[in-house]
Write a structure and sequence with these properties.
Blueprint: E1 45-47, H1 61-67, H2 81-92, E2 94-98, E3 103-106, E4 117-123, E5 132-137, E6 142-147, E7 164-170, H3 173-179, H4 183-204, E8 207-209, H5 217-224, E9 232-241
Antiparallel strand pairs: 1-6, 2-3, 4-5, 4-7, 5-6, 7-9, 8-9
Helix pairs in contact: 2-4, 3-4
């Protein structure tokens, strides 16, 4: 039986010489993978509040960090579209596209500007927005409606009682293209960067969240319509106003 200790290697940087040499696709001249998964030309899009128009309550950073905690019980009060726009911008907002569209600067760091995450949203209660499953189009700062008949999400009870569920997926090749065998550690760190920003942004607007790292992987991927190989779920976080 494999010990969990034997699965720790991907978390350790080590020396490159300690690893089997893997030629990077970047060095082989393979084209850069796209910064965002494609969406249909006829997709139903929802305009979000532009980043320049977002308003944040006067919250001191140290106070916000001190009060941050995980919340599993949420009020019936919906999030506003402006509040959801803020949370999306805080976690994956694109500040600038670089290198002829092959890299980006966002509100969270990512090794080499690769940003392997996609954000899916299960919306229950957001003002002016129909319930359903959406994907955040970070380059356009819009929501793309995927479906309104969603069925039960395969996870904990408090996922059903929140205003919206953030579901981050990984598209690993975006990072593998440049970082080869070191990519998977970076993807794990990128997910943590995004979720910590979500925690702090939630505190600033009187909302809360609870990061979920353990869920039925195959069920969640199938529920989202993912192949589980080139794109798969990596982190889940329900969000709602705090009672």
């Amino acid at each position: 039986m494999t010990s969990v200790k034997n699965l720790r290697a991907f978390l350790k940087s080590g020396r490159a010489s300690d690893w089997e040499t893997i030629e990077r696709d970047q060095d082989r001249g393979v084209p850069t993978p796209p910064l965002q998964q494609p969406y249909p030309d006829d997709a139903q899009l929802v305009d979000l509040v532009p980043p320049g128009d977002l308003e944040v309550p006067d919250a001191r950073l140290l106070d916000t960090m001190h009060s941050r905690r995980s919340h599993r019980r949420f009020a019936e009060e919906p999030l506003s579209l402006a509040e959801l726009s803020l949370l999306l911008w805080a976690t994956q907002g694109v500040k600038r596209v670089l290198r002829d569209g092959t890299a980006a600067l966002r509100t969270v760091p990512s090794g080499g500007g690769r940003h392997p995450l996609e954000t899916y949203l299960l919306i229950h209660r957001v003002g002016g927005t129909a319930p359903g499953l959406y994907r955040y189009l970070a380059l356009e700062h819009k929501l793309s409606l995927l479906r309104t008949e969603v069925g039960p999400v395969p996870d904990q009870w408090f996922v059903r009682d929140c205003a919206a569920v953030f579901i981050w997926t990984a598209v690993p090749y975006r990072t593998e293209w440049r970082h080869a065998q070191f990519a998977h550690k970076m993807i794990a760190m990128d997910a943590g960067h995004a979720c910590q920003n979500l925690y702090l942004a939630c505190e600033a607007i009187g909302a809360g969240t609870c990061a979920i790292g353990v869920y039925p992987q195959d069920e969640m991927d199938a529920w989202l319509g993912l192949d589980g190989e080139d794109e798969f779920t990596i982190y889940v976080a329900p969000v709602g106003k705090v009672p």
